[in-house]
Amino acid sequence: MAKPTVLLTRRWPAVVEQKLAESYDVATNRSDRPLSPSEFREAIGKYDAVLPTVTDKINADALDVPKARTKILANYGVGFSHIDVTAATRRGIAITNTPDVLSECTADLAMTLMLMVARRAGDGERELRAGDWSGWRPTHLIGTKVSGKTLGIVGFGRIGQQMARRAHHGFGMEVLVYNRSPVDPGILAQFNARQVDTLEALLPRCDFVSLHCPGGTENRNMINSARLDLMKPDAFLINTARGEVVNETALAQALMFDTIGGAALDVFEAEPHVHPMLAQCDNLVMLPHMGSATREAREAMGFRVLDNLNDFFTGAAPRDRVA
Ligand code: 8YV
Predict the structure, then answer these.
(1) Is the bond leading into 37 cis (omega within 30 degrees of zero)?
(2) What are the residues facing 208 on neighbouring strands?
(3) Ligand 1 pocket: which of 81, 102, 287 to mutate (most atoms within 8 A of CB)
(4) CB of 203 within 8 A of CB of 227?
């Protein structure tokens, strides 16, 4: 029997590309540049499976193909707010993602950002590299203590829980949780965490707020100017979730007028474009969407896609089917 045809929209770790080629007839986007909407439409008409990732904007237009051949979008990544789920489902296309395998690394990066912004690590490194360090003094680059402070976690899924583990057991932080559904008390107890019912109840009580909820229309602009105003004037916002969850203009204003202490972002609304006002803020740490960027996580994500594909093409239910 002929192998199913699959398209990788970006380059993947070599070990996964090799393994994939054993069972599938694989086409690779050798240029490793994001596909255009028309290239994407062509792919939907041509391949049995398309393996997209966060840089593919798969809206209704991209799925508007009279004779779609693709039966599954096996996404490389846990977040899938770049896919119009309703439009894909209408065309009978299944969607899978890659949870679990990147939770620890993404939480590690959220911790990195939290520590960097609180301890002014970016400022320090820039000063040193610019040759401007004049030596130790008691008043130099004074930051904020992290240990023992209160951390608000928005979205208490797998990554949010890994963040709580690090913050509570590593840094003795008090953990408050906001989640759309009630969290099992046994899980909260692992981190001595308390769940609150609204963001309005969470934000004024936190020294740090870290976002771990999905993106998409439901959570677009969740952190707007009214909610930023509820944060303590010296509190920090960390976003490793999705750019659209934060209103970037409102955040830049809060940073410029010092109504919050600072922010640290790994994700942006219009990646790879950075809002010009954000680029001017000193009390902001920015990283280029690196949450899952470890060899271990990126390989495991690829193998997880492979598992989902194998299930799908042998008629079993893929374990990570989200639609
Ligand atoms: C990736 C992510 O950067 O999994 C996600 O949702 O944001 C990250 O793991 C990306 O989506 C896949 O490369």
Answers:
(1) no
(2) 151, 236
(3) 102
(4) yes
Tokens found for residue 290: 């690196």
Give the span between the Cα atoms of 119 and 109, in whole angstroms.
Answer: 15
Question: How far is Cα 283 from Cα 118, in angstroms, rounded to an integer?
Answer: 9
The answer to whether residues 249 and 277 touch, using CB atoms and an 8 Å cutoff, is yes
pTM for the model: 0.97
| Structural domains of the chain, with CATH | 5-100+295-313 (3.40.50.720), 103-286 (3.40.50.720)
Q: What average pLDDT does the segment 119-125 reach?
A: 98
Tokens of 303: 């193998």
List residues with catalytic annotation.
242, 271, 289
Q: For residue 171, give the 3-state DSSP assignment.
A: helix
CA gap 122, 175 in Å, rounded: 26
Beta bridge partners of 285: 264
What confidence tens digit (pLDDT) does each residue in 154-196 have?
A: 999 999 999 999 999 999 999 999 999 999 999 999 999 999 9
Atom of ligand 1 nearest to the CA of 76: 12
